[in-house]
Amino acid sequence: MLAIEQDAKVDILHACGGNARCTTCRVEFIEGEPSRMTAAEKERLQARGLSGVRLSCQILCDRDMTVRAISRLEGSGRPDPGRTPEEAITPAPEWI
Fold it and tell me: Which phi and psi angles does 10 have, rounded to 5°?
């Protein structure tokens, strides 16, 4: 998440602060999608009935990746994108 918002300067929401709860940090992968995901990401996507997207707060940026941010602050009506996420994936990742 921080690599997208802070390093790449992309306008992306993260209302829950990067804790795999709100799904506002959704991205669509264009290239470089990781094959594994956290149990928290899988559970949240299934609970919301979402497919074809990933939660950027649950992805390790360990290779070149090209993504499209789905939920942006601009036009959302929110005062800010959300509190700053932790540097580590939260909750602690259980990889599946």
Answer: -90, 135
- Res. 7: pLDDT tops 90: no
Number of Cβ atoms within 10 Å of the Cβ of 84: 14
What is the distance between the alpha carbons of residues 77 and 66, in angstroms, rounded to a whole number? 26
Asked if residues 70 and 4 have their Cβ atoms less than 8 Å apart, the reply is no
For 57-78, the pLDDT digits (tens) are 999 989 999 999 999 999 999 9
pLDDT at 14: 95
Q: Read out DSSP for the chain?
A: -HIIIIIS------TTSSSSSS-TTEEEEEE---S--BHHHHHHHHHHT--S-EEGGG----S--EEEESS-STTT--SSS-SPPPSS-SSPP-B-
Tokens 């990889």 belong to residue? 95
